[in-house]
Amino acid sequence: MYDLIIIGGGPAGLTAAIYAARYKLKTIVISKTRGGLAASAHAICNYPSYDRIDGLNLMEKFIKQVEELKVPIIYEEVGKIDKSENKFTVKTKENIFESKKVILAGGTERTKLNVKGEKEFIGRGVSYCATCDAPFFKNKITAVAGGGNAALTSALLLSEFSSKVYIIVRSKFRAEPSWIELVEKNSKIEPLLKEEIVEITGNEKVEKIKLKSGKELDVDGIFIEIGSVPDTNFVSNLRLEASERGYIITDENQETNIDGLYAAGDITESSLKQIVTAASQGAVASFSVYEKIKKQAVEIDSKTYNKT
CATH 3.50.50.60 in the chain, residues? Predict the structure, then answer.
């Protein structure tokens, strides 16, 4: 049995693993993806010690540090977590793991537009990752749906490859002023505010997007960056306390309403969702796990002593 299972291999989960290793906790990380959603970030300009770094490069540094500390990382999807009195059972399609404590650090999943043609053209012009797919659209026309930081940084990356980039925004930009300024100065990018995509059309690949105003745009690709939702389906049986938006509520120690179950990073209800804050929460969660395991060990020793 493990002392700790960390579910999620992004900034929160990997930082939790680093701290757990230093506390000598027997730990394993289970993650669907390498580096989590942060790995898809085109440009990170607010992580201490780096003026600018792409998400994949930063997360590879996290992973390397975890691997050097001999914490195993397995890339599987967790389907369910069960809790008994003294342990958690974590089930993937391939394996079953048991631990004393669990940290949920699975982050979020991309929000879908849920418009006609979106699902049909995934991988054929519809993408949720500009960092992954931008080079495939060299000298082509692309569009980005969304008005936040992720959308604008995606548009800026696409402008390095595409001949033209539209940004489709339902209302107004919600990004940091520095990103808005860069977009507005970029001659390849055309923002379309107070517009919505209602349909994506094409034959073998994406060819057009239809807007709510009735306008149609000829595009070769559409990148969807309209936010995310917490990845919590695999714990739906546990009756976790969550916000109206579905984000997990924790105390100051990152513990949930279920004893021994912790959460950290973007999966939690927090006002600021950044790599640096996710890492901080991961560190707090591992420290809290260590303190609780240490306390419980003392209590067990005390009970054993009193019986003799």
Answer: 2-110+228-307, 126-224
**pLDDT tens for residues 211-223?**
999 999 999 999 9
Strand order in the sheet with 216-218: 197-202, 206-211, 216-218
Q: What percent of the chain has pLDDT over 70?
A: 97
What is the mean pLDDT of the segment spanning 83-107? 96
Cα–Cα distance for residue pair 157/195, rounded to 1 Å: 22
- 13 in Cβ contact with 102 (< 8 Å): no
Of 72, 55, 81, 85, the closest CA to residue 20 belongs to: 72
Residue 276: the pLDDT is 96
CA distance 18 to 66: 6
pLDDT value at residue 49:
94
CATH 3.40.1000.10 fits 126-224, yes or no: no
Q: Which residue has 């960390």 as its token pair?
A: 6
Residue 43 DSSP SS3: coil
CA distance 242 to 239: 9
Nearest to 134 by CA among 222, 209, 38: 222
Residue whose C-alpha is closest to residue 97's, from 116, 79, 117, 70:
79
**What distances in angstroms separate CA 291 from CA 89, 98, 101, 260, 297, one per listed residue?**
21, 19, 12, 11, 10
Token pair of 182, please? Answer: 């860069």
Nearest residue to 59 (alpha-carbon basis) of 264, 279, 226: 279
pLDDT at 73 exceeding the cut of 90: yes
Q: Which helix (H) or strand (E) holds 222?
A: strand 221-224
User: How much is the pLDDT for 304?
Assistant: 57
- Taking the C-alpha atoms of residue 298 and residue 197, their distance in angstroms, rounded to an integer, is 59
| CATH architecture of the domain formed by 2-110+228-307 | 3-Layer(bba) Sandwich (3.50)
Pairing status of strand 206-211 against strand 216-218 = antiparallel
